[in-house]
Amino acid sequence: MNVLIVESRPELGVLWKRHLERQGAVVSLVRGQDEAVEYLSEHAADIIVMDLVLGDGSALAVSDFASYRHPNARVIFVTDTSFFSDGSIFNHSSNACAFVPAGTPPEDLAAMVEHYGVS
Hints:
The protein is of the alpha/beta class. The protein is built from 5 helices and 5 strands. The protein has one domain (2-117): Response regulator (Rossmann fold, 3-Layer(aba) Sandwich), CATH 3.40.50. The longest helix is centred in the N-terminal third of the chain and has 13 residues, at 10-22. The radius of gyration is 13 Å and the shape is globular.
């Protein structure tokens, strides 16, 4: 399974990446919108784990681009804010499959990646 992590905070992105790799996933880590679009222009992703609030660019723009380039790719949005806590993210992103807090244990995130990333 190919996983793309889009996370501005390197320590969090690396934590998720290592855990998912231990579970057998092929994982790429990028920090913002431009890097994510560049990656998705050249590679497929089965699932994208993405911080809703990126330091560089827009997570919704990445999600839109992914749905165009890779219609079967699903997005797990991660956040440490209350923005979209009403679940409306699913109205704004057609490929969103989960919306979880940034503090979600890596093993739980890995279980979600496995569940949603297997077609």
